[in-house]
Design a protein that fits this description.
The chain is an alpha/beta fold. The chain has two domains: 182 residues, Rossmann fold (3-Layer(aba) Sandwich); 134 residues, Response regulator (Rossmann fold, 3-Layer(aba) Sandwich). 38% of the residues lie in helices and 16% in strands. It contains eleven helices and twelve strands. The strands form two sheets. It has a six-stranded parallel β-sheet with strand order 2-1-3-4-5-11, sandwiched between helices. Strands 7-6-8-9-10-12 form a six-stranded mixed β-sheet, sandwiched between helices. Helix 2 runs parallel beside helix 10, helix 5 runs parallel beside helix 6 and helix 7 packs across helix 8. The chain starts with a helix and ends in a 7-residue tail after the last helix.
Length: 346
Amino acid sequence: MTDVSRRRMLFGGAALGAGALLAACTSNDTKDSAPQTNTKENAASEAPGKAVTIGFSAPAADHGWIGAITANAKAQAAKFSDVTLKVVDAGKDAPAQIAALETLIAGKPDAIVLLPQDGAQLTAVGKKAMDAGIIVINLDREFSDSAASFSLIKGDNYGMGVAAGHYVGEKLKGKTDAVIGEIPGIDELQLTKDRSKGFADTLKTYGLSVKHRVAAGFTVQTGQSAAANLLQAAPKLDAVWNHDDDQGVGVLAAIQQAGRKEFFMVGGAGSRDAMDHIKNGDTVLTATVTYPPSMASSAIILARLAAQGKGMGDLVELQVPKLIVLQSETITKDNVDKYLPLGFKS
């Protein structure tokens, strides 16, 4: 397998049909790039099979990554003449999403692709759907019981922290007194805990640790507020890892407003905005670690295959895998040109 093909498999997370490969990140900004789907140009197309109905639910697109998730799912489903996609509003919180899913389950779709508001709180409704014979593909935010889904596809949250930790560690190698800051997303989510643990574990191998940590909430506003608090608490910094490029818009605004430039920053997810800053060298942001929203396209493919009783064409097994974890790659000025077409708009 070529390096390019391998990269596509790792990012896309699934193979489709005979030798099909999925490409990497995508954008929800149609001016820059279309949502990533399995087209004839980048994947072998399967012949239409049994008609299936797939339900889909994800939190409202209050930032670019979630917007790209929903755009990818819709675009991928539209590629299949045998798929009917039913999108249900996730509401403002977990109880609202549960209520919407209860109605969806009553309609008995063949499968549901679900990115929960909160994996633990949505576990029971996932199990209810599975018990009703509906295939559930758990997307990104993990249920607390694996029996609540047929398959789970997610980014490597711990691996994001590892990638960020190695980048920071290499840049600060030998500087054991370095002051490192961290701006995570929503602290209550397991994915945030995994990212922070990967970062801390990796920094430890370099004799480094996080000295200042202020959580945000995956939005521009919370990113700006968290960064302002962090900068006030730390009069000097050597490096900062911001977990999310969407909240990073606010983080960078706070840094610019404070006139701080003595440190470098690593982002998270791989937005087009972050890549532009990395390429132009016009902010403290020098790298970002990926968390591809193309996983939503892959989740639709998995749901269709499972609902039609098929497995992946490149695998011997008769069913799709129970777990797919995507790789996290590091984007710097040296390789940013390769990734620019793949970034989502914040």
